[in-house]
Design goal:
The complex is a heterodimer of chains A (about 120) and B (about 110). Chain A is mainly beta. In chain A, about 0% of the residues lie in helices and about 50% in strands.
Chain lengths: ~120, ~110
């Protein structure tokens, strides 16, 4: 079964850091680009970042560039999102998503999401 | 960034109805468009990719069309499980962007 399982969410103070993980299974992880997408409470979907199948090229939304870092580890089929300098507006459910191609494409598999709350 | 505008933002329909949701891009995106369904508390689910291709396992009452800047999602013979929020998504260029969503309610 193709599956993505996120972990690492929680409550963090403004200015703090958090690292999210996304464990992949059921497909050849190293063949596909992977992204992070978030959804603030009651709001729509916002793409945050992508890493290519090789782990080389990456891209970020302006809202997180310079604060968030995406990476992947092919040795354990895991995607990461290091989040620094967190702000209240980063409060959201964070999803990892598999893309249909090596660097761009529709998101055909999604994790269940992990909640991040930034508050003092 | 390419903006996607969905219409309507919400609509009410009955079981058995056929509904159409449109998505307009602020610039041409060829056929690099997908549609997702999201139910409360759940992750989005891919319905249509590359504008008109049905994702495996998705019922054939869902259909997509369009290219360039104008796209549509059509749901025929609505079923109770189809009442949800629908998002379009362009992946022609980064940053990849989503429409604001269309909420489909039971009339």
């Amino acid at each position: 079964e193709v599956q993505l399982v996120e972990s690492g969410g929680g409550l963090v103070q403004p200015g703090g850091s958090l690292r999210l993980s996304c464990a992949a299974s059921g497909f050849t992880f190293s063949t596909y680009a992977m992204s992070w997408v978030r959804q603030a409470p009651g709001k729509g979907l916002e793409w945050l970042s992508v890493v290519s199948d090789s782990g080389g090229p990456t891209n970020y939304a302006d809202s997180v560039r310079g604060r968030f870092t995406i990476s992947r580890d092919k040795s354990n089929d895991t995607l990461y999102l290091q989040m620094d300098s967190l702000r209240a507006e980063d409060t959201a459910v964070y999803y990892c998503a598999k893309q249909r191609y090596s660097f761009i494409g529709a998101f055909d598999v999604w994790g269940q999401g992990t909640m991040v709350t930034v508050s003092s | 960034a390419i903006q996607l505008t969905q219409s309507p933002s919400s609509l009410s329909a009955s079981v058995g109805d056929t509904v159409t949701i449109t998505c307009r891009a602020s610039q041409a995106i060829t056929s690099a468009l997908a549609w997702y369904q999201q139910k409360p508390g759940k992750a989005p689910k891919l319905l249509i990719y590359d504008a008109s291709y049905l994702q495996s396992g998705v019922p054939s009452r869902f259909g997509g069309s369009g290219s360039g800047t104008d796209f549509t999602l059509t749901i025929s013979s609505l079923q109770p499980e189809d009442f949800a929020t629908y998002y379009c998504h362009q992946f022609n260029t980064y940053p990849t962007t989503f429409g604001q969503g269309t909420r489909l309610d039971i009339k």
